[in-house]
Amino acid sequence: MDTVALVALARAARDGKVPPEILALTITSSVELPSLVTGRWGTRCRIVAADETSLTLAGLKRARLVTARGKEPPYTADVDTPDEDEPTPDTKALLSAAHLLFAALDQGAAPEPLDFHAPLRSALAAAARAISGKGELAELTQHPLEEGIRRVALLLAARADGRHAACELEEMLRQAMAKPEVPKALRQKLWSQVVELQKRLDLHDPAIAEEGDDLARLQRKLSQAGMPKAARETAKRELRLLRGMQSNHHDYSTYTNHLDFMARLPWQPDPERPIDLAAVRAALDRGHHGLEKPKRRVAEYLAVRKLGGENASMILCLAGPPGVGKTTIARAMAEALGRPFARVALGGVHDESEIRGHRLSYVAASAGRILRAIAQAGSASALVLLDEIDKIGEGRTRSPMAALLEVLDPEQNPHFQDNFLGVPYDLSHVLFVATANDTSQIHPTLLDRLELCEIEGYTAVEKTMILRTHLLDRLRAEIGLPKTPEIEDEAVTALIDGHTREAGVRQLRHALAKVLRARALALVTRKDGGATEANDEAGAPITVAEVEAALGPPRFTKAKALGVLPVGVTTGLSVGPGGGSVLFVEAATMPGRGELVSTGSLGDVLKESVRAALSHLRAETSRYGVEQGKLASTDIHVHVPEAALAKDGPSAGTAIFAALVSALSGRPAPADAALTGELSLSGRVLPVGGIRAKLIAAERAGLARVVIPEANRADVPEDLHLDVTFVNTVEEVYRALFPA
User: Distance between CA 381 and CA 425 in Å, rounded?
Assistant: First the structure.
């Protein structure tokens, strides 16, 4: 308090001329008195006791200073005291929030959303008891009631976060000091907190000048990067070199770029966020229908983290045909986990230096794509998408596939060596997600390091859900239609079955966009013509006629019941980079000496399946309705159409067997049935892969029945409209296709 004012009040108290009330307010300088304090808020007080060293006041009411007069303190003032006995609804709500915040800070628990009906005086008293420090008291007394309470609440909230962070850091330090050797996980948590404090508070070595040349600023950034010892020593050595080097030296820019990259690169993982599995699942479901395998893997990863388990870096490989959502689900995973997202395109990369970087001796040397992506994301805990890993180039000497072995091996990537960086870098906190269309093109050694998660395509039911819940709204916003139109079930069927035939939904999206663009064109044309009902028509349901008008007649037709297939022809199922597909196996017989010919660009495994089926048929001729001795005088030709496409694998064994039986017995196979399964020489039907993709292809083709191995029962999806027959032997296949 001002000393002159205190002495004047003490004298007035001794003379018995104590004023009935005074207005107490806070100022920053005596220069403001008396004219510059007009309009400020203070507290009307009654003097309880006063002497030359202290003053005791009893607060009565808040008041606003209207005018102040006088040449020396105490000054005479006119004040305005608003009626605050009954707070407004806004004030009540604000006081309620402040009261809840104070209670939470006092009790250390989250506040409950309860109403607060305490009188104003009690509320202010509770606030004064809950806060401490001059800053909060000043905010409370210098502003109107609502603004003061709001500012105090914000200050207390910030102070509470700081106390929580300080307690957490103190607890980690206590744990570290109590152990002879600090565990790696605890050491990384401490480093994360230290780096965060350095950046937020702009802490650096006091020896570094606050302002100066570029090297001083670079040194300051390096001191805040939280680099490990080896990197710090390298940075110090290069800084000493730069300080003794002219700026026009040919190596000056090389070392400067190297140090700048080291300063930009995040060296410590981000502090761990609270894990809410329900929120993560909701974030993944919001943008993607189905795709349960990658969603479940993310949930498992977080569950291990939540239980405090030691979890190595998650290295997923999302394998599936184009358009099934591999890249978008990776983005959604990063969003759900709260991690920055970085994409590294590997298609066509054919040099190891693209992954490991160039050495500093190279002209225009730079870091590899992996570290550049992490630096761009700004986080050592980012989710890095390695897109199209199956399309990476192969070279004789500098293969990038070999360089990826170190990146994707959890045992090696904590010490990843980038040629440009020159020091080990820890990649163990990065979540790597790779995408591929054909895993057979990935080197077996690299594939062994990936956690394969196959996405085999969508059923017709799933495509319908995706179209209605995701595609329609997004495309409406992109195209600019005023309303999101409904779409009839028949129109959805026409789009899915008549104009697209794919495992994903990319072509479906293109077809739907074309229909909506046609509607947008018609809408603008009618508006230009003066039609007033155009906006109402924009929300009309999309019909089959509108689909056909925009896209033309159906490009694909379902193979509905066609009676019977020609003798010697059966329907098989295959799977490839583009998803599942239907193929036909043809067998023809002719008089000869029992020779076998197979054509159609068949691989070695598929040719062996043909020989195994024929050998089993020779051994069990009478069981399958084939005349005795006919095989010895008959030549057989097995052909698989679309000879320009290479075909291989064992899964066509049952289809080949059925085609041979049909050709030799003269009985046609049913046209609405397809087969898949490996055939053994003893007549057993063995399990095969890609069952989901194959069944989806059979449903797209309009088939009614599918015969698959019993061992693949668990792979059959529930939402397919197919009659699935499970078999263990080829005799069961024969009875299913050729009933007596």
Answer: 13
Look at the domain 277-454 and name its fold. Answer: Rossmann fold (3.40.50)
Q: List residues bridging with 342 in a β-sheet.
A: 384
Residues carrying CATH 1.10.8.60, the chain: 460-551
CATH 3.30.230.10 residue ranges in the chain? Answer: 569-737
Q: Classify residue 620 by burial, with Cβ atoms within 10 Å: 0-12, 13-18, 19+.
A: middle
Element (H, E) at 734: helix 730-737
**Average pLDDT of the segment spanning 257-276:** 81
Model-wide pTM > 0.70: no
Q: Provide mean pLDDT across the span 248-276.
A: 82
Reference 464, options 434, 488, 448, 484; nearest CA is: 488
- The span from the CA of 737 to the CA of 672, in Å, is 10
Q: pLDDT tens digits, residue range 71-85?
A: 776 777 888 876 655
Separation between Cα atoms, residue 318 and residue 393, nearest integer Å: 19
Q: Which architecture, in CATH terms, is 569-737? A: 2-Layer Sandwich (3.30)
Split at pLDDT 50, 70, 90, the class of 495 is confident
Q: Report the C-alpha dihedral over residues 402, 406, 409, 415, rounded to 10 degrees.
A: 180
Asked whether the beta carbons of 687 and 613 are under 8 A apart, the reply is: no
**pLDDT category, 392, cuts 50, 70, 90?**
confident
Please provide the distance, in angstroms rounded to a whole number, between the alpha carbons at the two ends of the chain: 111
* Span 619-628, pLDDT tens digits: 888 788 777 7
Supply the residues annotated as catalytic.
651, 694
Mean predicted confidence (pLDDT) in 383-397: 80
What are the start and end residues of each CATH 3.40.50.300 domain in the chain?
Answer: 277-454
Domain range 460-551, CATH class: mainly alpha
- What's the confidence (pLDDT) of residue 637? 92
- Please say whether the beta carbons of 325 and 504 come within 8 A: yes
Candidates 273, 274, 267; CA nearest to 191 is: 267
Structure tokens at 638: 């097995």
**Block residue for tokens 């059925």:** 658
